[in-house]
Amino acid sequence: MIGDSWAGIHSEMHLDSFLCSEIKKDYLRPVSVISMGKGGEKSGGIYQTMFKTDDYGTKPLFLAGADYCVVFAGINDAAANLGTKQFCAHYRMIIEFLLANEICPVIIEIPDVDLWNIYGEKPLKDLLIDYLRSKMTGCKMYCFREYRDALKTMLIKEGMMDSVVYVPMTSWSENGERIGQNLFMTDRVHLNLQGYERLDVCIAKAIVCDLDQSENSAFVNKPMNEDAE
């Protein structure tokens, strides 16, 4: 599991063992889960960390051998108004890297989070910069739906949907695009324990379903080549 703070907090809360136990309920082979993420990281930065071994570098995770990689990316791209084109370009590189190393990407559809809860005190100058950046990229300010829809469209258009495990919000959110606040911390941006457990249950089911559909898949414990780029 790699990505931004959603992956990082998953590790800090020691939820790797929970996800592992959920997968093992329906999968009898040995299972190991490791998560690592950096708060505030955007899709481009997440891609770069896949080639690093220090600090927040996630290359050691791949060198150890992985069958699946859960990716948390997009909230910070939308929060920074970087534009859907740049977001999708970076996400595509993440997916292509994983597939090239015979690792199945698990894509977590980004939800609508309440940025205004923490951005409400943002200086007017910074809000104006965000507004101008949104105009330059042609995306609405802090609009998660545009990034969500753009990624899904890219996956379908590029024929990648059949090569990934896609976990939609509707599989774990009772309120659809806007997840209930009972699943968030007080900042309304990061999941609490209940939120992670509900999401992990859905991730586990999606992975097990994929395993059932592809028992003879090539994604079987092949460590990444040391020189992979």
What topology does this entry show?
Blueprint (H helix, E strand, L loop, with lengths): L1 E2 L1 H8 L3 H9 L11 E2 L5 H7 L9 H5 L4 E5 L2 H5 L4 H17 L3 E5 L7 H4 L4 H14 L6 H14 L7 E3 L25 H21 L16
Parallel strand pairs: 1-2, 1-3, 3-4, 4-5
Describe what is shown at a glance.
This protein has 229 residues and is of the alpha/beta class. It is 45% helix and 7% strand.
Annotation field: number of helices: 10
- Supply Rg: 17 Å
Strand content: 5-15%
Report the count of strand segments: 5
The residue fraction in helices comes out at 40-55%
Structural class assignment: alpha/beta
Order of helices and strands: EHHEHHEHHEHHHEH
Q: What is the residue-averaged pLDDT? A: 90
What is the strand arrangement across the widest sheet? 2-1-3-4-5
How does the overall form come out from the CA principal axes? Answer: globular
Multimeric state: single chain
The biggest beta sheet reads: 5 strands, parallel
Q: Low-confidence parts, pLDDT < 50 over ≥5 residues?
A: none
Q: Give the distance, in angstroms, between the N- and C-terminal Cα atoms.
A: 19 Å
Task: Walk me through this protein's architecture.
With 229 residues, the chain is α/β, with parallel strands linked by helices. The protein contains ten helices and five strands, in the order E-H-H-E-H-H-E-H-H-E-H-H-H-E-H. It has a five-stranded parallel β-sheet with strand order 2-1-3-4-5. Helix 6 packs across helix 9 (144-157).
